Amino acid sequence: MQDLGAKARAAGRELAKADTGAKNAALFTLAERLVEEAEAILEANREDMRRARDNNLDAALLDRLELTPARIEAMADGVRQVAALPDPVGTMTDLALRPSGIQVGKMRVPLGVVGIIYESRPNVTADAAALCLKSGNATILRGGSEAHQSNQAIALCIRRALQRAGLPADAVQVLSTTDRAAVGELLTMPQFVDVVIPRGGKGLVAFVAEHARVPVIKHLDGICHVYIDADADLEKAIAIAVNAKTQRYGTCNTMETLLVDASMAPRALPELGRIYRDLKVELRGCERTRKFLPEAKPATEEDWRTEYLAPILAIRVVDGLDAAIRHINDYSSQHTDSIVTENYTRARRFLREVDSASVMVNASTRFADGYEYGLGAEIGISTDKFHARGPVGLEGLTSQKWVVLGDGQVR
Amino acid sequence: MQDLGAKARAAGRELAKADTGAKNAALFTLAERLVEEAEAILEANREDMRRARDNNLDAALLDRLELTPARIEAMADGVRQVAALPDPVGTMTDLALRPSGIQVGKMRVPLGVVGIIYESRPNVTADAAALCLKSGNATILRGGSEAHQSNQAIALCIRRALQRAGLPADAVQVLSTTDRAAVGELLTMPQFVDVVIPRGGKGLVAFVAEHARVPVIKHLDGICHVYIDADADLEKAIAIAVNAKTQRYGTCNTMETLLVDASMAPRALPELGRIYRDLKVELRGCERTRKFLPEAKPATEEDWRTEYLAPILAIRVVDGLDAAIRHINDYSSQHTDSIVTENYTRARRFLREVDSASVMVNASTRFADGYEYGLGAEIGISTDKFHARGPVGLEGLTSQKWVVLGDGQVR
User: With 70 as the cut, is the pLDDT of residue B52 above it?
Assistant: First the structure.
């Protein structure tokens, strides 16, 4: 692993000064090769799938693991989209002249070496490699053992694409080892690894956060709220509350708790109750909620803290904005929270006072996503405050150094 | 400590929404109180000094510990300067309209709770409290046991100033305990502490980096380089090389190794040798350096890795820009490195390819400083790449959350 780390560090230095053209050429070649080598990748994937079935892995995992010609096409498309994004590296900003005569500004630079630890989806191999390559970072990828063959087949395409573009082949290294010791080492080599990004379930993220001796961009729970304010437009409120919960149940930006101002409850809750009932969403409400929705089960303290990732919704009636903000800052996982209101001042207060990675006015929490935000793609969503919050794209994979331009100035 | 952490978290929430006027009022009151209470602070400091002398602490430490009326005045001035800086909190930027109709941008927000662990200088208590307060962060300050009385006297002024401005008194908590266990706890409460900043010697920083389970803004060595390029203006080169080494010996942005292009060595080294000799700087050179400066001791591999913090300079003759950049990226501590050249293309390459927190052209490394960069003040200098590099001011104590403004959009 030390040797692998040293190779990544050396490749990272080369990549940091690579020009945009070379990086894009590698990405376009990678996209081509994924399509050309589709049959080899699918064959490797079939082998992984066979072993996964033999090991009785569950249906959800098998679905994430499986590649199809369409999924490979989508992977290639994703890589082409990253090529089309502007290159953040080298951008200089804010070059201010100082009284001493020096000019001081910042230049955006890669972080260096990024470790990615992920679970069953083989498409992460191509996605993560593409984002790191474009942002000038070397990558060490460690996928799930169940996707081993698929990942190696994709890794071969990446390696060839790097070589064809004249970039160091070690810029993207896919760990072939399947033991946990390699992960442990990856997490504890600050001399070679600048940041680790775990992509997977809570168990994986918690393991990485616990053991890492390098910075981690981590994504824990997504307990997202929509608050329907006293001055909400009812139609918008209904549309957002339904969309935020039901457009997809398993995503981190799905609403898990709906807060309703007491004055809006009589108008909003019965109608929402009918819609959720039709969509088979199980409701759990506070006592005041259950006056309007007797079919809701009583919500417990535990419900306010739960990321259901399922057709279940907790509902609480609150007295005004302060109570709503207090509930959110107490129970939210600081992922994404939205207010529905026509009131200007309360909208501004919600934006300022809710301490979450994404804070919204009159929009569905489902918009918290790299593509929707215009990042092009995301390497993950951070629920930390340090370095990057929310969807992390190319910029989140970079840092800024200071540049000073002088004419011989001394102090 | 848990209780103290919970108080800091609650105070941080209040402070995050405090308006600039209240924060500035607290800062101006603090500056006033420091001056009014100068006699009480000096008395506390005299007690610390007595104990320090009884414990035979060395002269350098005694100098850092000692307060004088002038030093208290300077402390008050520093606090007033922070009050005069623009408030970064709440600034919204880059509000782009997306194809979906939502408007997406970023708002600058405090990190939350900042832990500062520092050694003997009592002025850090006021400096750090002021910067954290202005950036909307609650602070837990843990100074050196030798400055205990002085820090408590300053802490009292801070507490009163917060109360007078109607801000939570727990926004700045100065640990009265002097045991190491409190530090250990401070480093391992991610639920209450968002970042820890150690300010002190290498031992302290290494201890914090080793034990922290929260993010750390850390400053390790300052092994800074000046490279005199083949196309350097000789006059600028001499001025910068002398200033970078000799203006102050003990600071982290002092040059420790001078690199000279082979073609410049015959002109630059003899003259520099004369000046350094007059200033009593001990020289250690590579073989080629010693041809021009026979009085220089032979430099060893160890010299390239050493932060002397003393009137000692390592000198190496190199063949061109690539060799200089290679030396810097191999041996520099990624703090501050400067090229002296009139060559446009080599200047651009140096800026791009040297991977240090501050990269300079034709300026003394001594400029790497929060005041010189226009940050107004610095809470520290980061040699990390994650979150913040180089001098860390108010902005480095903040993060950005996403804001989304919609009109009822759903996905």
Answer: yes
Domain extent for B54: 2-217+388-405
B123–A contact, CB cutoff 8 A: no
Interface contact B403, partner A, CB < 8 A: yes
Pairwise CB contact (< 8 Å): B410 & A240: yes
> Strand locations in B237-287, DSSP E?
255-261, 282-285
Find the CATH number of the domain harbouring A336: 3.40.309.10
Q: What is the pLDDT of residues A358-409, one digit of tens each?
A: 999 999 999 999 999 998 888 988 988 899 999 999 999 999 999 999 999 9
- Taking the CA atoms of residue B272, residue B276, residue B281 and residue B283 in that order, the dihedral angle to the nearest 10 degrees is 30
Separation between Cα atoms, residue B154 and residue B157, nearest integer Å:
5
Tokens of B328: 């810097």
Are A108 and A161 in a shared domain?
A: yes
Burial category of B131 from C-beta neighbours within 10 Å (exposed 0-12, middle 13-18, buried 19 and up)? buried
At B317-335, the pLDDT tens digits run: 999 999 999 999 999 999 9
CATH number of the domain that residue B189 is part of: 3.40.605.10
Beta strand B282-285 with B297-298: parallel, antiparallel or unpaired? parallel
pLDDT tens across B100-142, in order?
999 999 999 999 999 999 988 899 999 999 999 999 999 999 9
Task: Give yes or no: residues A42 and A138 share one domain.
Answer: yes
Residues of B in contact with A360 (CB under 8 A): 403-406
> Is B131 in the same domain as B232?
no
**B:130-149 residues touching chain A, CB 8 A cutoff:** none
